[in-house]
Amino acid sequence: MSPTRRKFLQHTAVATAASFLAPITHSSAAEWIGSKAKAGYELFFMQTDWGFEGSRDEFCAETKKAGYEGIEVWWPEKAEDQKVLFEAVKKHDLQIGFLCGGHQANATDHLALFKKNLDAISATSYQKPLYVNCHSGKDYFTYEQNKHFIDYTIAKTKATGIKIYHETHRGRMMFAAPVTRNFAEKHPELRLTLDISHWCTVHESLLSDQKETIDFLLQRVDHIHSRIGHPEGPQVNDPRAPEWENTVKAHLTWWDKVIAYKKEKGERMTILTEFGPPDYMPTLPYTRQPVADQWAINVYMMNLLRKRYQ
């Protein structure tokens, strides 16, 4: 094990104590019995490199060892970084999904960078991605400014066959449930990455008062970011802890519906386990030591959902 990997896995006494909660299995995970899947249904679990401090090769090796089918990472702009990434993916026989976005405050510049990155992903000769997950636009761009991102991705999917999704994410164009519904109603071909933890925070609820809108949008989902959020934040400290059982059940209920749609249609489903490092992961004051093990939680989520949805 490399020094960087060892450093990444070190726990404080508090985090070690929290890890004893790992055997806890929420009863709802065993209770759900999904419909029989039609031919074509398949389930791929992806791991995030967010917070991993080792090399690309080390990350891919650990991902494969943990039982994932692939990884989801930001598109690297430098040619050398692309080479290193794809060599590691090939070596460890992994699938890949890419994140694509822009950061500029100016909508025109933002869209230009977004297009540049998406064009590069679509043209790579190394390995065709399973999908591209877009951090699209900004919450303060106008509808007309944001719709250009949707139009471009729909055209790109038709031209390349690559599945392209827009993530429900704070700060981005899909930052709130009713805003996303407006986009979906006006763009029937829009497909989503569901990170519903963000909406729990934006709407400061578990969305029980928006059931019709949520159910409508769940039918547009092709990819899930399986982080557990709550009304006061986008990530619970540890989903294995009993105090979060009702919150976990709410997320499982949403995800169950998405999986049911996919099984009924006989389509591929991808799930990224995306519990994040500090500052998404709560920390102890002064020392900033994380209260739980991010990697272990993500592997726990993969195993929980694989058993539930395979």
Write up what this structure looks like.
With 310 residues, this protein is an alpha/beta fold. It is built from twelve helices and eight strands. Strands 1-2-3-4-5-6-7-8 form an eight-stranded parallel β-barrel, surrounded by five helices. Helix 4 packs parallel to helix 5 and helix 8 (177-186) crosses helix 10 (211-218). The two termini are 31 Å apart.
- The dominant shape is globular
Nearest-integer average pLDDT: 92
Q: How many DSSP E strands? A: 8
Q: What separation lies between the terminal Cα atoms?
A: 31 Å
Overall radius of gyration = 19 Å
- Physical arrangement of strands within the biggest beta sheet: 1-2-3-4-5-6-7-8
* Helix vs. strand class: alpha/beta
| Range of helix content | 40-55%
Biggest pleated sheet: 8 strands, parallel, barrel
Which ranges are low-confidence, i.e. pLDDT below 50, for 5 or more consecutive residues?
2-25
How many helix segments?
A: 12
- Could you state the order of secondary-structure elements as H and E? HHHEHEHEHEHEHEHHEHEH
Strand content: 5-15%
Summarize this entry quickly:
The chain has 310 residues and is α/β, with parallel strands linked by helices. It has twelve helices and eight strands. The chain has helices at 3-9, 13-19, 27-31, 56-66, 79-91, 107-123, 143-160, 177-186, 197-202, 211-218, 245-265, 294-309; strands spanning 42-48, 70-74, 95-101, 131-135, 163-167, 192-194, 221-225, 268-273.
Secondary-structure blueprint of this entry?
Layout: H1 3-9, H2 13-19, H3 27-31, E1 42-48, H4 56-66, E2 70-74, H5 79-91, E3 95-101, H6 107-123, E4 131-135, H7 143-160, E5 163-167, H8 177-186, E6 192-194, H9 197-202, H10 211-218, E7 221-225, H11 245-265, E8 268-273, H12 294-309
Parallel strand pairs: 1-2, 1-8, 2-3, 3-4, 4-5, 5-6, 6-7, 7-8
Helix pairs in contact: 4-5, 6-7, 8-10
